[in-house]
Amino acid sequence: MANNKEKLFSEFPAVSTEEWMAKITEDLKGADFEKKLVWRTNEGFKVQPFYRADDLKGLDTDTQPGQFPYRRGTKACNSWAVRQGIGTKDIKAANAKALDILNKGVDSLGFCCAGRLIEAADMEALLKDICAECIELNFFTSPALALAQAKVLVAYFEKKGYDKSKLRGSISFDPMGYMMKSGVAQSMADAKALVDLLTPFKKFRCLTVSGGMLADSGAFCYQELGYALAWGNEYMRSLTEAGVASEFAAKKIYFNLSISSNYFMEIAKFRAARMLWAKIVEAYKPACHCSSQPEDGICRCACKMYVSATTSKYNQTVFDPYVNLLRSQTEAMSAAIAGVDSITVTPFDASYQESDEFSERLARNQQLLLKEESHMDKVVDPAGGSYYVENLTEAIAQQAWNLFLQIEDEGGMLSLVEAGKVQEAVNATNATRHENAAKRKEGLLGTNQFPNIKEMSEGRKPKAKCCSCSCGQEKTIATLDGARLASQFEELRLATENSGKRPKVFMLTIGNLAMRQARAQFSGNFFGCAGYEIIDNLGFKTVEEGAAAAKKAGADIVVLCSSDDEYAEFGPAAFKAVGDSAIYVIAGAPACMEDLKAAGIENYVHVRCNVLETLKDFNNKLGIK
After folding, report:
1. Residue 190 near residue 197 (C-beta atoms within 8 A)
2. What is the DSSP secondary structure assignment for residue 457, as one 8-state letter?
3. How many CB atoms lie within 10 A of CB 429?
4. 524/530 Cα distance (integer angstroms)
5. What pLDDT digit, counting tens, does each position of 244-296 carry?
6. Each residue of 396-429: pLDDT tens digit?
7. Could you give the count of Cα atoms lying within 13 Å of 379 in the half-sphere of its Cβ?
8. For every residue of 403-454, which 3-state class applies, written as one string?
């Protein structure tokens, strides 16, 4: 069998990288390779159009899943917990919901305490009939209440006689995240007491790194990771300086990271995160207490990163909301392939309402599909050895590490948060991404690209920003913006809808068949982003015929769609024929544009336009505020 295999492959001569490049250069027919095929990422590195085995040289790809530095995963299997959040305003209802979803595939509960302390009696009611040893229990509360909440929970566990080694979950203590969200100063003072209290509970964590908060505020992938590493290191430094042994400190930290829509980049991000965090913890020399100690006495188990991943809220949209299902499905798949510890799929309607039973069921089933039908929990690190993913992992790791070192040089994560520098950097990135979305350099299907022009909001409105239960407290620290990428387009479209009139955009198509069709499609897509009604046409024999049809249709805007060569003739003629009956627009940026402007034609839509600002201008012209 082996000989046959050798014979088969011997018939295919090896092709060198130089030969591949020669063929690609030939096919480009003089076009610049770098400009045409090399992707310049937001993370600051270049992605090549092809990778080969040679590109793995020098990369650490020999370790196995479960082996330090955990690039390929912290365990030798790919199991992950299916998590779902539950509000606790109504304790009895929260318990009923928990019991219900535990029978529907969930094995990790995330109780949102909404700034309130769940007292002993309520804890009994909340966890009634729930076996805490069989699932993950997670409690999200404010930093000021975390220690008190932990004491209530520990007392409950001890009363029930649970085996401390079997209990899994977390109590969130995240003063830095709270500061960036609320603007209210917080203390790190309770960190040591929390760790001391929960040290006997080996699988229960309490110090939260909410890196996903940054991604949901627009941060680039490397920013989320670089800041998250510095965030975790701040906890390590603070605890060890307070006298907590590093092996205990590290095992109480967990990372909440977001999953964005860049499929392969996200897979690489989680792999890089584990690898870098392992190196950071190793530098603290955590002591190993196992019977078979390593030669250097360092506990590599303490270097394992625990990652809870949540699908992004930043790219969710109010219009065409079912597209959110497509986004979150590929995002969840990225996290599953990357080998995270738990996944929360954000329901598709989370951007505009409190999610209902239907949307929560879909969110659960998105994960269950990956497990039960795609069997992704049966394969560990399927991306391992991929020329592309391994190089992405290395590149993201390098960029994130550079940012981490920069943060440490500037005084550490806490000081930068207190000074507002982290918030400033992330908000600047968010502003850049909003500008890119306005120019359609960053696309959102159904929002700034290919909108459903027949869709109405049906009462859907973007949810107001959460104040993080900080009402009435003095805000002394800069906060994260948190505006979703679609927010400005949604405001624009809702303004059109709320105006009570829906402007009609008439495509006056004439001349070259291919060009008029392409430009009509482009223009329909363009104006559809504002919620305008699009009236397309097959073509007219004369501009006068088209203008007459536009007037009959009651058009508010008439868009001339033809070829650049024909605009010199059709442009002025159509302008005259349309007259004052509608706003006149030319689709494209023809070479004769200056001559057309001299003739009084002011409006043009083309690929270099800022779509958002252009549509706002049309709204103003139409009297829509």
Report:
1. no
2. -
3. 18
4. 10
5. 999 999 999 999 999 999 999 999 999 999 999 999 999 999 998 876 778 88
6. 999 999 999 999 999 999 999 999 999 999 999 9
7. 14
8. HHHHHHHCCCHHHHHHHCHHHHHHHHHHHHHHHHHHCCCCCCECCCECCCCC
CA dist 549 and 116 (Å) reads: 64
Q: Is residue 164 packed enough to be buried (19+ CB in 10 Å), middle (13-18) or exposed (0-12)?
A: middle
Interval 90-145: pLDDT, tens: 999 999 999 999 999 999 999 999 789 999 999 999 999 999 999 999 999 999 99
Neighbouring C-beta atoms of residue 622, cutoff 10 Å:
16
- Alpha carbons 611 and 625: distance in angstroms, whole number: 17
Angle between helices 263-282 and 221-241 in degrees, nearest 10:
20
SS3 per-residue string spanning 165-225: CCCEEEEEECHHHHHHHHCCCCCCCCHHHHHHHHCCCCEEEEEEECHHHHHCCCCCHHHHH
DSSP-derived 3-state class of residue 550:
helix
**Between 7 and 561, residue with greater pLDDT:** 561
Structure tokens at 239: 């605890």
DSSP 222-277: HHHHHHHHHHHHHHHHHHHHTT--HHHHHTTEEEEEEE-S-HHHHHHHHHHHHHHH
Closest residue by Cα to residue 573 from 551, 599, 554: 599
Could you give the 3-state DSSP secondary structure of residue 128?
coil
Q: What does the alpha-carbon distance between residue 177 and residue 231 come to, in Å, rounded to a whole number?
A: 9
Tokens of 99: 């019991």
For residue 500, the one-letter residue type is: G
Dump pLDDT digits (tens) for 437-473. Answer: 999 999 999 999 999 999 999 889 998 765 555 566 8
> Residue 186 corresponds to which tokens in the numbers above?
């917080």
State both tokens at 356.
Answer: 């209902």
Residue with tokens 């069921």: 361
Q: What are φ and ψ of residue 619, in 5° steps?
A: -60, -45
C-alpha 89/C-alpha 319 separation (Å) is 29
Of 342, 334, 304, 338, the closest CA to residue 66 belongs to 304
Contact between 172 and 141 under an 8 Å Cβ cutoff? The reply is yes
Average pLDDT over residues 171-185: 96
Three-state secondary structure readout of 28-91 = HCCCCHHHHHCEECCCCCEECCCCCHHHHCCCCCCCCCCCCCCCCCCCCCCCCEEEEEEECCCH
Q: Which two tokens stand for residue 268?
A: 């690489």
Residue closest to 237 by CA, chosen among 280, 176, 178: 280
Peptide bond preceding 69 in cis form (omega within 30 of 0):
yes
> The pTM is what?
0.94
Residues 95, 102: Cα–Cα separation, whole Å:
11
Distance in angstroms (rounded) separating the CA atoms of residues 320 and 304:
40
pLDDT tens-digit map of 10-57: 777 888 999 999 999 999 999 999 999 999 998 889 999 999 999 999
Write the CA distances from 165 to 135, 137, 159, 255, 436, integer angstroms: 13, 14, 16, 21, 49
Given a contact cutoff of 8 angstroms between Cβ atoms, the answer to whether 111 and 88 are in contact is yes
CB of 139 within 8 A of CB of 153? yes
Sheet containing 557-561: order of strands: 533-535, 504-509, 557-561, 583-587, 603-605
- From CA 92, how far away is CA 104, in angstroms rounded? 19
Is the dihedral angle over the CA atoms 609, 613, 614, 615 positive or is it negative? positive
